[in-house]
Amino acid sequence: MVTATAIADLCIFLLTWNVGTHTPRNQDLSSLLSLNGTTTCPDNQLPDIYVIGFQEVSTTPQVLKIFNDDPWVLKIADSLSDHQFVKVDSKQLQGILITMFAQHKHIPHMKEIETEATRTGLGGLWGNKGAVSIRLSLYGTGVAFVCSHLAAHDEKLKERIEDYHQIVDNHKYNAQGYRRIFDHDFVFWFGDLNFRLSGDMSAWDVRTDVENQRYADLLKLDQLNLLREKGNAFSLLEEQQPNFAPTFKFVEGTNDYNLKRRPAWCDRILHRVQSNIYPGITLSANQLSYQSHMDYTLSDHKPVSATFNYKVEAANQTYTDEELHEMTHGSASSPATPNVSLSFAFVVFVAVSYTQL
Prior knowledge:
By secondary structure, the chain is an alpha+beta fold. The chain has 7 helices and 11 strands. It is about 20% helix and about 30% strand.
């Protein structure tokens, strides 16, 4: 009889939100971050890890930054300050931002943390489009979280595909065995991917289908679905099909579509797991939720979140995550862990100071 021993069993919360250059001053993020008593994690527990990606954060000099962190990172830290979360890392490229927070108990199981950025907009000169990422050894496995903002507008499908391949080709890490994004055992890719609907349906007809919840019919026209089927881009990743209304484009401050653009599922979360690449080890990331958050009306996009049950299991044997790390990353690796004391103090500081921003 085969018995499985869990090396890791975590709930990972991912969120993407194009905030349209707005700051978070008056936003209450408790519902968005599942801090209101209801979560989609097993046993209604809080997530073990939050990884949050933003697009179009403000880059104006007037936006105050503390410890070189964007106000959105500070706002998240403030929101999580009562729940013993530690900031693991952040990376920003112009308006694209990714940040990661974890429960304090998981920090010893995180090693070789790296961030990377790839510019694609305006020939890669400005960085208004592109990707940022955080990769790490998590309980011995290689995990990459990628947040991207691809070329906008219906007619720019070719540019979006080029953006994707430029990110895949140019994103490089130092970790042994995990030099590129798809070398990783787990990949989570999310952001404002900007894919629209193919064909010539009018914005009004699309809205009518949305109001009648004919999502399946519209998703047959979705550019991301079509190009994944053809293998043009994102074909190595999986996506649970959205069962929520298109998240773009809204009149700011409302839940009404701005019909200057056809409604579209621009904001997406995809993932990939190499399940059985190590003898006796099984990797899995069962998706627990995929939803938009209609209550948040700050920008012309709705936030989109997903939760995953990340598991690492060993069959008929006992591994520590240290032993698994040696197997996956090589024993010569030099661990790099977050500065826990600084990160924890940072969260406490924010809880006191953020209201002054």
